[in-house]
Amino acid sequence: MLVRLLIVFGLCLPGMALAGPTSRPDPETGKALAERLCTNCHLVGSVRQEHANPDVPSFREIANLPEQTEGAVAARIMLPKHPMPQIPLTKSELSDLAAYILSLREPNAH
Ligand code: HEC
Hints:
The chain is an all-alpha fold. The chain is 50% helix and 0% strand.
């Protein structure tokens, strides 16, 4: 019995290692990144924020655009339209940010 358990455990471990914590977009990490990198211009979603530029779409507005997806948001961060600057990010930071922005989407917006 113990031997069987050990074998099952041994088979599971590599799989668990592959599906480690960085493999899935984490909106909480995205939120922290957004608060650090994007708040000079965007209203990021937290209620208390003083420095957002009113001409720049808020993350909630971006999330609620019709047909908005994480892929489209990530693409706009990677290939920004002027005057949004290009911000160097890793792939996982990018998907964390996109996941965070999409988490602000309101279900009945459209
Ligand atoms: C220097 C100011 C500035 C900073 C910093 C900035 N942005 Fe932007 N961003 C803009 C502006 C301005 C636009 C609108 C561009 C346009 O006309 O479409 C924009 C547009 C966007 C869009 C596209 C919205 C759409 O219409 O589809 C996304 C997504 C976005 N920003 C995400 C981010 C994220 C994530 C960060 C932080 C990592 C960030 N931005 C940092 C200025 C900024």
